[in-house]
Design brief:
Strand content: 5-15%
Radius of gyration: 16 Å
Helix content: 40-55%
Number of strands: 3
Largest sheet: 3 strands, antiparallel
Distance between the termini: 31 Å
Number of helices: 6
Shape: globular
Length: 155
């Protein structure tokens, strides 16, 4: 099932994260984490079951208690700028710990393929290209071409 709305391009995510204060390698990490969490969809959400049900909301999948689902608080977090600002605040207080895509290593994987043969590395590659193209805009130079994924390894 497709996610609602339209995904933001990594270049735009890079620009917005830069405006929120991320720089250098942390900017690349921010874009990769964002992509690993929501694939760039501002309206993405994920319901978490368990003893304390909650919902992850928006670009950076900001976690909210289930009591706040359907409230103006949740609605505000679907706004791109508000979600990124909240993510920046979390990052400043806790580093990358709140994001599963970072803590499990998936956001920054450099392997093109996982040991099970499934594609990997796409978030980091998209983030690198997005940041490079954002920088290209700043310096008014040509954008970076698409990365070509190699064929999977033969077993």
């Amino acid at each position: 099932m497709p996610l609602p709305g339209k995904a933001l391009e990594p270049r735009l995510i890079a620009r917005l994260c830069h405006e929120a204060g991320w720089r250098d390698i942390e900017l690349v990490k921010a874009v990769a984490v964002c992509l690993s969490e929501s694939n760039g969809y501002p309206l993405a959400y994920h319901d978490n079951a368990g003893d304390k049900p909650s919902r992850d909301v928006g670009l950076f999948q900001i976690n909210i208690p289930y009591e706040k689902v359907g409230t103006p608080y949740e609605k505000e977090l679907y706004a791109v700028e508000a979600n990124i600002a909240r993510a920046r605040g979390l990052y400043e207080s806790r580093g990358w710990q709140p994001w599963y895509g970072f803590t499990n290593g998936y956001a920054l994987s450099t392997d093109w393929y996982r040991p099970d043969g499934k594609p990997s590395g796409r978030y980091l590659m998209k983030a690198l290209r997005g940041v490079a193209n954002f920088q290209a805009e700043l310096f008014r130079v040509s954008p970076v071409p698409l990365f070509k994924r190699p064929s999977p390894p033969k077993s």
